[in-house]
Design a protein that fits this description.
alpha/beta, Oxidized Rhodanese, domain 1, elongated, 134 residues, 5 helices
Amino acid sequence: MFFAETGGFDFTYVFIAIVLGLLIGMIFSKNKVDKDKYQSLNYKDFMDMKRKGTLIDIRKKDLFEESKIVGAKNYPGKSGAKASVRRDIPIFIYDQDGRKAEGAAKAYVRSGAVMVYYLKGGYKEYLNEKEGKM
C-alpha cells in the first residue's frame, strides 16, 4: 500500500498528513490571543484609566439602561468586537460580575484592538466600591 507499483515510496500519504497538519495548526493558531493585549484591572485602576480609551458595557441592554458607568457605550456580549469601535486606543470593558469580560476582551483583541482592559468583579464591584465611598 505504501509502495507504488513501480517499487518506489508513495508520498501521497505523507503529503496528505502534512497538509492536514498545516490546516490544524492554522485553526488552532487563529484562536490564540496574545495575553499581553488584555488585562484585568481592579476598581481603582480601572476608574483612573478609563478616560484614556473607549468604555464599553457588555451587559444586556435592559441592565445598561437601568444604570451604568458614566460615559459607557452598550455593546452586549461580544457584539462590540464587530461594531465600529476604535481599536487604535485602549478599550475598557465591564460586565455584570466579571465572568464574561475576559472572553469579550479576547474577542476585541482578535478583532484588532491594541489593548483591552476589563473590570475585575464587573459592575457589581463598581457598585460595591461606589457605595463604600458614600
